[in-house]
Amino acid sequence: MYKCVVQVLYNSFMLTESFTASNSAFFPIRELVHRTGVNASTLRAWENRHGLLNPVRTESGHRLYCQNDVQRVRRVQELLVQGLSLNEIAPLLEDAAEYVTTYAAEPASLGIESSLATTLSPAWQGYLAETLSALESFSTERLDNLYNEACAVYPIDIVTERLMIPVLEQLGLRWDKRPSGIAEEHFFSAWLRNKLGARLHHAAGMAQGRQLILACLPGEHHEISLLLAALGMLQQGYRVIYLGADMPLAQLLPVCRQTHAAGIVLAGRGFNEVSQMQANLQEIAGLVEAAGMPVFVGGRFAVLAQRELEQVGAQPLGDNISIGLRLIEAGLNAAAKATASKFAMTPPQR
Asked: Does the global pTM surpass 0.85?
């Protein structure tokens, strides 16, 4: 497995007693307790028994932590909620930490074409190169290991933005330049659908926030981007009703009535003919009018038909998942505020 060269070692810092949180990026254990909600005895046990933390020590032996430790503790908490034991978590964190390095190979030397992927940090370029290598050998085991390592350290939305989406982009750029390019794309899509479907099923029971209905536009059979968006929504606490590919939009109205959802999120890559765009816009317009809730549209379709979507009352999200999630939150909040104002202005019944 691809490994980077230099691992960050906290204990290489020469520190003194005057090195405090007030004048540096480091802070004592009480501050780590405050930021994470994990008590001090548990943090010490995670360090001493399982090696999950490696704080800097002052000359007198006092522990000092930094923001990386905060992120590490939060990731441990997430993995514990997912059902992993501390013994299972420790090797995942150790393997993934080796990617946080000063590795600086040129993207071209990793087989990465000039694209969005070249703007990634060296660590993420390393993940990307190794993932592409695993795809070339059609190794499910290597894909699983890489994905699990990345998720052990980083939140799902970061892994999606900096690894999954660049992999999809690379496959799209090179599918016609490799003898097995189409097979590699199909292999990755099938693996990712299974992987994300399992995580979606597991995470759905933990979400407690507002409920969203997710579906692909009619005729859209590529659902990977919508699955990635669904995971991001679950990460932010939304509850998700996932309906998948090629969904007749009229079928969503009974779902709205039965579930009392807060909004609908649709996705599509684009359209081959203007007539196809017009047909989708007509269905979306009917859904907006009948659903009585915000209707969001993401993916390439939302970029190409942004003005038309706004004209029929839908809210275009674009094709960036992180930005799209923020727009959904803003749209839902605006709708809730408008509803509250409407009820406040309604005179009481006598």
From this structure: no
